[in-house]
Design brief:
GO terms for molecular function: lyase activity. Helices cover 47% and strands 11% of the residues. With 305 residues, it is an alpha/beta fold.
Length: 305
């Protein structure tokens, strides 16, 4: 199995579109892919945390996969499917469907209700999920702040390379830069894309080559400028871009990140509807404040190409 895929550059962790009543709206996927392609984003990570996968039914996730299959072919945006679930059987079934759809990789996070108690048990969960798509590279999605599952990624890699034939890497969503650098340097054949947008410059400074992020949907030009500046040794510009990122994300988070991010995408021409329960959505007054605060930092001048 070829695991030469590398998630370098920017990978957009995309939202799942819903209608106003909260039901699925796969017809908006085409507009998502079109916007990404127009901004030079060539990879999408679907039905992950940003995609509200934990609030979706199994068949809904398959519907979104099917919509992305069509959009991918039309717009040239390749797809990594997050299949993770508290049921590893669901994760394996979704991985199988992702392979049928022609996606380029699968990924899954750890079960988080009944948590794996050892790193070996975690690897077994991931191996089971990955086995549904044996022809696709597999990435473990490590996001301890949400799953509560915390093991040293180096220990995971050591076992995964022995037990998961299609293991390719880890989506590292943890702001611990020392641990990230340790993981990067343990085995350079393993791909470790970064996953915390607000700390991207720090990750680049210790060796990151790519990142998977939700804010790449609505501010791709900012992060492209950041990466270019860093590569050219322009630390001041990279630092300025990162500060804009931090301000933008803080503004969104102050009123409920998910609902505000989806509303923002609507202002950019992609109607994604509301966030699903248990997450909330901004009130009309909060939306006015949101727009005003984003305008105050110049967001609409530097977010898109």
């Amino acid at each position: 199995m070829d695991t030469s895929l590398k998630l370098h550059g920017l990978v957009a962790a995309v939202h799942t579109p819903f209608k106003a009543d909260g039901s699925l709206n796969p017809s908006s996927v085409d507009a998502q892919a079109k916007l990404l392609a127009s901004q030079g984003i060539k990879l999408a990570f679907i039905t992950g945390s940003t995609g509200e996968s934990s609030s979706m039914q199994l068949e809904e996730r398959k519907e979104i996969y099917s919509a992305w299959k069509e959009a991918s072919a039309k717009h040239g945006v390749e797809v990594i499917a997050h299949t993770g679930s508290n049921s590893v059987w669901d994760a394996r079934e979704l991985a199988s469907f992702a392979q049928e759809c022609g996606f380029v990789a699968t990924s899954s996070l750890a079960p988080s209700y009944y948590k794996p108690g050892t790193v070996q048990r975690l690897v077994e969960c991931c191996a089971f999920a990955a086995s549904g798509a044996p022809d696709l590279p597999y990435y473990y999605y490590d996001i301890p702040v949400l799953t509560g599952v915390r093991f040293n990624p180096v220990d995971f890699i050591r076992l995964a390379k022995e037990q998961i034939p299609n293991f390719a890497g880890i989506k590292f969503t943890n702001p611990d830069l020392a641990l990230y650098q340790t993981t990067l340097n343990y085995d350079e054949t393993v791909d470790i894309p970064w996953g915390v947008d607000e700390w991207f410059t720090g990750a680049l400074s210790v060796g990151a080559k790519g990142a998977v992020g939700s804010s790449f949907n609505f501010a791709p030009a900012l992060y492209q400028k950041l990466m270019k500046a860093f590569a050219e040794g322009d630390v001041e510009t990279a630092r300025d871009c990162q500060w804009k990122s931090v301000q933008m994300i803080n503004i969104l988070a102050s009123k409920g990140y998910m609902g505000c991010a989806k509303a923002l995408m609507g202002w950019l021409g992609v109607d994604l509807g509301p966030a699903r329960l248990p997450q909330g959505n901004p009130t009309a007054d909060q939306l006015k404040e949101l727009r005003s605060e984003l305008e105050g930092i110049g967001f609409f001048q530097w977010a898109l190409n």
